[in-house]
Sequence to fold (222 residues):
Amino acid sequence: MIKKINLLFAILLVLLTPSYIFAEDSYTVTCESSYANPLTGETVDGGSNLALGNSMIDNMLTKEVKVEPTKDGYYLTFSLGLASNISNVRFQTMDENQNFKDVPSEHIGTHEDPNKDDKIADYRVKVESLDLYVSPIFYVDPMERDVQFFIKPLSGSASEQEIKKIESKKKDLSSGLSTHIKDDSKDGDESGISTFDYVTIGVGIIVVILLCIGIYYVKKKR
Ligand code: HEM
Fold:
């Protein structure tokens, strides 16, 4: 009898485990960058040496971008090298009509660059679409001025299978099944974990405790 109850608890536990524990949250795409506005061929920060600007971007920008779908867009994580030389980092997006828009960003961490005697800083940027140019702006200490350039995430560079998996996750998020990715636009619950998830986590913990008690008694009886 006790064995049957334990089996029932185990099944319940699996069924109640929130789907996001198993689901994947992100994929990585490559990106291309340019110092000049790709639509006009002109820089937007007043600089005129395109070749020097492009090589400086190549020297500091990691060409891999982490993509995390949210209910209403994406979080993109960009890694900027030579980070000890830069400050006041912010981001804009640019659409095909050259409309620039400030977008929220968050400095999520800084770590040593294994290839250079400097640091890499990671920034998570919230965008509405992957089909926009993302444009970082920051102050470069040795240049004593702000620079601005353009990044295009190449959304087709991730594997089709990976994209499908994540996009179906995005649908889940939109339908409210699982909202564990932090959504700044939502008031209240900062962690982004829904009430549904809290309930399932709570029930899951209770089931595990009951399961442990069951196993303990079975062993004691033997
Ligand atoms: C942390 C990264 C960077 C460092 C340490 C850095 C450093 C420098 C230095 C020392 C110079 C003067 C070079 C000389 O006298 O010949 C310079 C010039 C220049 N840099 Fe950077 N740079 C950085 C990032 C960038 C980025 C990201 C861009 C483009 C978006 C850029 C664009 C330029 C341009 C166009 C010049 C020519 C002078 C000017 O237009 O002001 N640099 N940079």
Helices lie at 2-16, 50-60, 160-174, 195-221. The chain is about 30% helix and 30% strand. Residues 18-23, 178-196 have pLDDT under 50 and may be disordered.
